[in-house]
Write a structure and sequence with these properties.
With about 90 residues, the chain is mostly helical. It is about 75% helix and about 10% strand. It contains four helices and two strands, in the order αααββα. The chain starts with a helix and ends with a helix.
Amino acid sequence: METIKLYYFSVFAKTESVRKTAEIVNVSPSAISKALRQMEEELGVALIAPFGRGVVLTEEGRKFALEASAIVERISHLKDFIKKEKKV
């Protein structure tokens, strides 16, 4: 699974809005929707479900969001660590 998709999903999990996620990560809403569908296909589980005029996380989506967010946070930490090490 691509790291960028984990990032998109972790942002979506916080906003539960494809439009808001797209604005935050500066890509089109269709790119976010496509990434979410691809993740679901790859995992073989529904991460989001229609709700009213939008979508919400499923139970599996909420569980996955916790792990995805932790991975994204760890990667960010590692990038910062590498940048600091290069300066030494």
